[in-house]
Amino acid sequence: MNSRPALRWLVPAAAVAVVVGGGAAVGTLAATAEPSLPPRTAQQLLVDLQTARLDGLSGTVVQSADLGLPNLPNLSGAGSGTADIASLLTDTNQLRVWYSGPDKTRVALMGTLGETDVIRNGKDLWLWSSKQNKATHRTISDADTRSHQLPTDLPLTPQEAADRALAAVDPTTEVSVGRSATIAGRDAYELVLAPRDKASLVGQVRIAIDATEHVPLRLEIYPKGSDQTAFQIAFTQIDFARPDEAQFRFNPPPGAAVEESTGVPEAAKPDRPEGAPKTAEEAGVTTVGEGWTTVVVAKGGEDAAAGQQDEQAKQVLGVLTPVSGAWGSGHLLSGRLFSALLTDDGAIYAGLVSPERLYEVALEHK
């Protein structure tokens, strides 16, 4: 990945596609009969979400994804049965969550052979892998905007997923009210987001909102033309009491490897250290189009050719479909929610659109 920077956009692009868009049948998590609730308009539900005040909660979350993608190589190095962050892109996963304010959060991704925890306690951020017996600590600066950013940047709670989906609400989005539901023993309204542009592969995003606390309890994503979810994340159990402070204190167990991380420097600083992460503009990342049919364009740069020899790059390319056209040649990752085109000159084109739209954009940028 280091020798071919464009490949680093592949998984994040997939993650973004998941949380702003809509397969295989994965069912409906934690839902029972439809309750009778006083009517609420879509605008009222949007206001409820924006004005909700939450002191704390804890609960169990089940997340399921089946995006119709090929089996990508395990780039994290984690073995089968481990609590691998990358597994959030596939299969069904169980997480435990605790929240006691924006600076006190904890998420535990449970695996059959271990778990991965992300713990935020004030300015301390810990990433713990029980399988690797390794802890990484970082001191959060005032400039940080995310409390527990992970390599794949996937949402770990219905709230995170809903926040990102709601960020897509603009004139390109149709907003309506769906059917009410009972989720994790709580009555909930349903807010439905749908692209107005039918060229998108996304059908609908459905957000179930707690009728009393106004907190998202479930988010479902449906591909266009399907009544089966491709991605969903939902509480199966939830408690709105503030968790005990002990849940946010982490002490590495004896014998654990502990790594101190310097964090991510502020890209906007004029005196940014050499080697610090680039901004999207500096990295050659641009967008074409708007709304749900936006195509993200990431150029590979001067070292793209060298990346062809990178072993991880070869593993990824080996499972993708070779394609070519007037735009050039490359490899295609095509799912039921999005498409990503990796060209041989090191660029990536990705969006919630068909491969044909990516080919058009690639030709325009040739």
Automatic annotation (TrEMBL):
Region (Disordered), start-end ranges: 254-282
Alphabetical list of InterPro entries matching this protein: DUF2092, LolA/LolB/LppX, OM_lipoprot_carrier_LolA-like, Sporulation_related
Pfam families named among the record's database cross-references: DUF2092 (PF09865)
Top-level taxon of origin: Bacteria
Compositionally biased tracts (Basic and acidic residues): 268-281
Name used for this protein in its record: MucB/RseB N-terminal domain-containing protein
Organism from which the protein derives: Phytohabitans suffuscus
